[in-house]
Amino acid sequence: MRRAAVACSVAALLVMAVLPRAAEAAAAPMSFAATGEAIQTRTLANGLQVIVWPDHNIPSVALFNWVRVGSRNEGTGTTGLAHFFEHMMFNGTTHHPRGEFTRLIESNGGSDNAFTSQDVTVYEDWFPRSALELVLQLESDRLANLAFEPQVVEKEREVVYSERRLRVEDSSPAFLSEQVQATAFIAHPYRIPTIGWPSDIKAWTLADLENFYHTWYAPNHCTLVLVGDVEPAQVFALVEKYYGPIPGGPATSPVRTVEPEQTGERRLVIERNGQNPLVQVAWHAMPADDPRAPALNLLQTILTEGDAARLHRALVEERKLAVGVGSGWSEGFDPNLYSVYATLPEGGSSQAFEQALNAEIAKLLDQGVTAAELSRAKHQVAASFWRGVSTIDGKARLLGEYAVLHGDYRKLFAAPDAYERVSAADVLAVARDVFKPAHRTVGVLVPRAATSGP
Amino acid sequence: MVAATVLAAGGASAIPVARAAAAIAAPAAAAPRVDVPVPANERVTLPNGLRLILVPRHGIPLVACNLLLRGGALLDPPGRDGTAALAADLLTHGAGARDAYAFADAVEGAGGNLDAAAHAEYIQVQGQFLARDSRLMLELLADAVLRPRFDAEEFDKLRERRIEEIKAAKDSQPEALLGNYGRALLFAGHPYGDAVGGSEAALARLTRADVARYYAAQSGADRAILVIAGDFDPARVRADVEAVFGGWRRAAAPLPPLPASARVHGRRLLLVDSPGSAQTYIWMANVGVPRHYALRPALNIANLALGGSFGSLLNRELRVKAGLTYDASSRFTRGLVAGEFAISTFTQTDKSAQALQLALDTLAGFKHDGLDAAATDAARNYLLGQYPLAFETPFDWAVALGDLDFYGLPESYIGHFGSDLVATDAAAIHQVIDDAFPSPADLDIVLIGDAAKIRDSLSAFGPVTTMPLSAPEFAPAPADR
What we know:
The complex is a heterodimer of chains A (454) and B (481).
Chain A: H1 10-13, H2 31-35, E1 40-43, E2 49-54, E3 60-67, H3 81-88, H4 100-107, E4 111-116, E5 121-128, H5 132-144, H6 150-169, H7 172-184, H8 198-203, H9 206-216, E6 222-228, H10 232-243, E7 266-273, E8 278-284, H11 293-304, H12 310-318, E9 324-329, E10 337-343, H13 350-367, H14 371-388, H15 392-405, H16 411-421, H17 424-434, E11 440-448
Parallel strand pairs in A: 2-6, 7-11
Antiparallel strand pairs in A: 1-2, 3-5, 3-6, 4-5, 8-10, 8-11, 9-10
Helix pairs in contact in A: 5-10, 11-14, 11-17
Chain B: H1 2-23, E1 42-45, E2 51-56, E3 62-70, H2 83-91, H3 100-109, E4 113-118, E5 122-130, H4 134-146, H5 152-172, H6 178-186, H7 200-205, H8 208-218, E6 224-230, H9 234-245, E7 267-273, E8 279-287, H10 296-308, H11 313-321, E9 328-334, E10 338-348, H12 352-369, H13 373-386, H14 394-407, H15 412-415, H16 417-423, H17 426-435, E11 443-449, H18 451-458, E12 464-468
Parallel strand pairs in B: 2-6, 7-11, 7-12
Antiparallel strand pairs in B: 1-2, 3-5, 3-6, 4-5, 8-10, 8-11, 9-10
Helix pairs in contact in B: 1-12, 2-8, 4-9, 10-13, 10-17, 11-12
C-alpha cells in the first residue's frame, strides 16, 4: 500500500487482516447476472485488456490498472522491487516532474492509491467523470515514460523502509506472518515478503529498477478496469488514443519453480518485546482458479467469519484460549497458504491453544460441517458479495480479481451458482485436502518483557 | 533556521507548481461543480420520542439500519471509562429470548451483521441484512436495544477480551493508541479525555452492575434516532418499526449538559516508552472547533491542504521531500463541543526530533503564509470530486442522515456542500487558519517510542513526562507527572 488507512479502534485491531482475506463471492438472486450485461471489453493490438462497467449511480469513476507482477516475480537480492515500483510510479516521468501526478489528479477532484501483493500490483484512481481523459493520459504516461532519478530513488527507499517498520517491524502479527511464509516455502518465491527483506530495500540499484520496469511495465501485462459514470465507447476511444501508441513488451519468463511437497510439520519460534503470545498455523492450499475454491472459501467462513463461527466459538468463547482467531486463504496464481492465526491472552499457553485447534481440525475431518453451518456461510458470502458490488470501488476490485486471478471476469457472474452448488461433502473433501499435518507450518511468537535494542 | 527554510520552500512552491500546470499538455478537465442530492426520505417521530428516518433505495437487495442513542462514553461514571463501550458490546451478546450464541446464530445465519459500539457522544448500533430479512433485522435490533440481557458470563468474557486487545494493540499497532494518550492529556478533566473503550485499569474495575446501571439510566426511545435505508417497502417497514419499538419507554433521566472544552497554552510532551520500537509515533494537538462551526467548508479546504490528502503540505514536506515517513496527516474531530485538531506521523527512532521539528515548522509556515488561490482551488476541487464517493450506498446514507439528525444539522449540510465549497472565499480561509488551527507554540505532543534513545533530543521542545507503554492507563501515574 502506498498509504495507510490507520484503524482507530482497538476493537478493530484483531480482525484486521494480517493475511490476505479470502475473496468473497456469493449465492445470489437471479437479477445479478443481468447487472453485468452492460460490461464491455476490448483488447488493444499491444495486448492491453480493457474492461468497462458503466454505473451512473454517482458522477464518479473508479479506474484500476492491474499489473500482473508481484513479489512472486522477484529473486534473491531484489526482493521488494514490485512493491518499490508501486511507490516509484508516483515519482515522476520524463513528461511530468515528481509530484505532478498527485497534484494534477487531486486538483482535478481525483484521489489515487496502489497496492502490491505476491501476485499483482494494482494502481487505483477515483475521480469525477470530468477528469477521465486527464487520468488516462497520466496513467498511460507513467506506464511508458517513468523517470529514474537517483536522488528520488534514495528518498523513496527511506519511505519504503518506514512502511516496513510500520507494517512489519513494529507489528508482531505481521512479523510472525513473514517468518511463517518464509518457512512454509523453501523453493517457490511466495517465500519472499512483498515489502522486501531489509537488506534488499537498502541495496537495490538503479539498474535493477530500470530492468524491472522494462520487463514488466508494458500494456500486455496490464488489465485496465473502469467502473462508473462513463460510456464504454468513449472509454475505448480514449484508451486507444493514450495507450495505443505504447508498444507491447517482451514475453516474460513464467515462474517455473513448483514448491516441492512438504513432507513433515515445520515449526518456528520468535521471541519479541510484547505482551501477548501469537500463534499462526499455515497449510499449503491450492491456486485461485482451483475448482475447489468456493468450497474452501465457504469453509473459511464457517471456521472464522463472525461470532457464530466454529473456531471463534470453540477457542475464544468456550475455551478462552485466545482473544481473537481468524483465518484466510491467499488466493494467487500458484498454490499458496491457508492460515489460522490467533492472539492469545497475556500469559496464555500456545501449547494449549494448538492442542485445542488440532482437536477442532480432527473433529472437522471426522464429522464435516453441519447443514446449518453451510447455510449460514452461503448467506454470509451472498451478503458480502452484494456489499462488494454496491460501490464502483468494489466492482472494480471484483472485476479485476476475476479477470486477472481467475482468468476471466465472466467467472464473477458464474460464482453465485458455483457457491450455491457446494455441498457439505465438498467442504469436507476440501478440508481433508488442505488440513494435512505434514503440510503445515506452525509459528509461535513468545513475548518477552520490553528491553531496548534490537 | 529550519523554520525559515520551510517557510521559504512553502512560499515558493506555489509558483513553480502553477507554471508547471500551465505548461503541461494535459487535456483541460473542467472542475466538477456538483452538489450531491440527498435522497427522498420520510421522517416521523413516534409517540415515545423515537425519531425514525426511512430512506428507500432500490437496486442492490440489501437493507441497512443505523441507530444512535444519545449519551455514549461522555456519561461514563468517573474512573469507570469503558462503561458505555462494554454496555454497547453486550447489546448484541444476548438479548430478548436469545442468549449470545442464539443471537449470533440468528444474525449470521441470515447473512446479516449487527454491531454495537460506543462513541464519545452516543452508542451506535449498525447493521446490514439481505433485503428479504428486514423484519428479522428490526426484531433483532429491538431486542438488542430494548432487552439486552447483560449476562454475567458474557460481561466477564468481553471485559477480559477488551483488556487483552489493548495490550495486543501495543504489540501490533501502537499508532492506533496515540489519540487515547493524547486526549487524556489535552482534555484532562473533561469527558473527551477519557478513552471511549476504557483503559486496561478502568476496565478491570468495572462490574456488571456498573454497566447494567448505566444502560438502565441512559437508554430510552426519546434519546434515539433510527435510520433504515435500502431496498424495502416504507409503509411495511414503518409499521414494523412501530410494532417492535412502540413499547420502548423514555429515558429515566434528562441528558446532563456537556461542559465546553478549552484550548491549552504552551507545549507539553508525553513520551510513552516502547523499548526496542523501530519507529517513533507522533501526535500533536490542541482543541479545535465544534461540529456546528460556521465556516465548515473553509475548514475542510484548509485542512485538506495542510494534511488531508497525499498531496497535502504535511505529506509533501515530511514524506515526499524529506523521506522521513510513510505518512503525515492532520484532522479535526468535531463534536457537540470542540474536539481536537491533531497532526500525526511517524519516523525512524533516530529521526524523531527532526520529524517533530519539521511538522511544527510546516504548521508554522501554514499559519504564517495561509493558502494562495491556486492551493485553495486545488483543495476545493479535490473535495468537490471526492465527496460524492462518500454517499454511494444506502448504508452510507443511513450513517450520514443519522449523523445530521444527531447534531441537528440540515440536509443542506450535505446537499449544498458543493455549492458552499464553491462560494468559500479567501477571507473565510484566512479566518479559519487563524482561528481553528493552533499555533505550534500551543500543543500537547505525544510520542510513542524508545525513550532511552530519544528523550534527550526532545527536551528542547518543552517539558517531557515519560510513562511506560505497558502501563494500564493512558495517562502517567501521579508519581510520573
